Amino acid sequence: EVQLQESGGGLVQAGGSLRLSCAASGFTIADYAIGWFRQAPGKERERVSCISSSNGSTFYADSVKGRFTISSDNAKNTVYLQMNSLKPEDTAVYYCAAGPLLLKVWVLGLVDYWGQGTQVTVSS
Questions:
Q1: pLDDT per residue as tens digits for the range 16-46
Q2: What does the alpha-carbon distance between residue 117 and residue 10 come to, in Å, rounded to a whole number?
Q3: Do residues 53 and 102 touch, judged by C-beta distance below 8 A?
């Protein structure tokens, strides 16, 4: 069974850090691009970052560039999102998703699998 399981969310003060994990099962992340997306209440889902675990290529949204870092551990079949200098506007449910092609995941949001999400709340 294919599954993506996010963890690591929580409540943090502005300026703090969190590391989200996306553990994959039922498929190998090296064969996929893994993206992080987020959705705040009343807002549309937006892309945050994306990585090709096979070659390390990454993309970041302008709003998180320089603060967030995406990485992958193929041995653990897990992708991480290190979030530093968090802001209240980063508050959202964060989802990881997997798709076969990096550009299609990033540009078009075309993914095959979604996780159930983890809540990140940043207090001011």
A1: 999 999 999 999 999 999 999 999 999 999 9
A2: 12
A3: no
